[in-house]
Amino acid sequence: MTRRDRWGLAIFAACVAFPFLGSFGLLEPDEGRFAQIGREMMGGGDYLVPRLNGIEQFYKPPLVYWVGAAGYRILGISEWTARLPSALAFFGTIWLTGWMGWRLGGRRLGWMAALILASMLEPYALGRQITLDTTLTFWITSALACLVRVGTGDPDRKAGFLFFLCMGLGFLAKGPMAWVVPLTAALAWTVALRAGGQRLGLPWRKGMLLMTGVSLSWFVAVSWKYPELWKYFLGYELVERFASTTHGRSKPFWFFLPILALGAVPWTGFLPGLSLATWKKIRERSLSPVQWALGSTVVVPFGLVSCSGSKLLTYILPLYPSLALALATWLEKGTRSAWTKIGWGTAWGILLVFSPFLWSVQFFWSEAAGVYPSIPYLIGVPFAVVSLGLVAWKRREKPLTCVGALAGVAILIWHGACLEMERINDLLGRQASVRSLAQLVEKHQPERLFIYRARAAGLLFTTDRRVWINPADADVVVEPPAEAKGRFFEKPEELRAGLGKGQRVEGIILRHVFREEFDPAKWEIVGRSGEFFLIRSYGDGI
């Protein structure tokens, strides 16, 4: 890769990952929670034990919190800074995907792979939100890049050790998937090479020790401080998450098929043709060792998470870099088969109807009445699609131009959607931002603040206040401090207890919870955001 390409790829990745990060409030439940944990870590100075609302949290390892806390200290506290860890990870993932493409097939393949990954809907969306999966994906992609460097004949042994180090850091970002994807690739590559009498050359023994030591370092440290965590980590977070439905995320086996189809937009229409082409190569036994390796990083982890008792749409995020490389390899050949024509037609058609679809939601969903994108966005999206679509059509014999045009218009649409998020926030339901409600709280300055049966930690981030909470909502694993226990309540009636006459209590709940548990004669609705209500009551005095 030339210096010009390296810098060009970095500039492109930066233009995708960093603009408009602060253009909308933190989305619930994950963004508000992860952003606030990093903030409390920075404010409290304890970088070993993550805390939320002053209560110890151990359901995820701390690497993203550490990066977030460092960002707050250097750049200040804002939504842009809160999302910076994911944006940096997305930037790095795009760059490394392009580098792998260059290493495996040359300049054109590298640029096509980077363009495809950057414009896929799920990687783009999660790469600009605070999700642990984005940082996990970066370390997995880093490990795969080290593997590619080893497998393509780099004599430097450092790449082999970096392969295992990246897996360890990925484990500290989220967990075992950091091992699954790279080790699957390494084993598939090793087996394929041995069939031809060759070796991959990874330092397996020392590398596995390095990987395990880095991966378990934080878990051992906090379990030494809180011995009861051993059972929690091994039982509840590892075994039960995979083998049971304890976490309440049970989905059918096929759950990730539509998620992959939606997440790969606008490239979804190419997936059937890619699958058929791959199956043909398998039957002909013409797959190269690197193709076996990268293919296995999609198929094996996909099957594994499909068997899991706990399923979230973010679980397949680490598969997209390899999928982008596979699509780029197939499209680079410039074949004009029926499947590629279907793929191009589907891609441009999806983007053409994207903004009109958002506008039409209000007509078949009563909750969305009056919620739609701005007129410039509604008009601008089809215009951009038609304009760049014509460019792609005129230069259809040039695969890189076609991929660049489609990726470019998709990224413009996604960037525009970021600017429209405040307008369509109410369409997001329980994932909506509560920033507007938190701003009302800041204006009212109630004497007591609470969250009840809702995941809305964005309230804490915006107001920088501790809130009252029900113990069932607090994710208590170890005995909480006395100060935090003093803010626990069991029933809504307790929220008004002890307040003087005229003193206010405000809090965020879900809409159905208000109907079920709160007396409308004593509580008033102050604001709404998605499925969240901000409600208020007053103390009666003593």
Name the features.
542 residues; mainly alpha; 3 domains; five-stranded mixed β-sheet; two-stranded antiparallel ribbon; 23 helices; 7 strands; globular
Describe this entry's structure for a reader:
By secondary structure, the chain is mainly alpha-helical. The protein has 3 domains: 85-257 and 285-333, no CATH class; 351-429; 430-538, no CATH class. Helices cover 61% and strands 6% of the residues. The protein has 23 helices and 7 strands. The strands form 2 sheets. It has a 5-stranded mixed β-sheet with strand order 4-3-5-7-6. Strands 1-2 form a two-stranded antiparallel ribbon. A hairpin with a 2-residue loop joins strand 1 (51-52) and strand 2. Helix 4 (79-105) runs antiparallel to helix 5 (107-119) and helix 9 runs antiparallel to helix 14. The longest helix is centred in the first third of the chain and has 27 residues, at 79-105. The radius of gyration is 25 Å and the shape is globular. The termini are far apart.
Distance N terminus to C terminus?
75 Å
Strand order of the largest sheet: 4-3-5-7-6
Q: Show unreliable segments.
A: none
Q: Major beta sheet, specifics?
A: 5 strands, mixed
Percent strand equals 5-15%
Note the topology.
Blueprint: H1 3-17, H2 30-44, E1 51-52, E2 55-56, H3 63-75, H4 79-105, H5 107-119, H6 121-127, H7 132-151, H8 158-173, H9 177-194, H10 204-225, H11 229-243, H12 256-263, H13 271-283, H14 289-307, H15 320-332, H16 338-352, H17 354-364, H18 375-394, H19 399-420, H20 435-444, E3 448-451, H21 458-463, E4 468-469, H22 482-485, E5 504-510, H23 511-517, E6 524-529, E7 532-538
Parallel strand pairs: 3-4, 3-5
Antiparallel strand pairs: 1-2, 5-7, 6-7
Helix pairs in contact: 1-4, 1-5, 2-3, 3-4, 4-5, 4-6, 4-7, 4-15, 5-15, 5-19, 7-8, 7-9, 8-9, 8-10, 9-14, 14-15, 17-18, 18-19
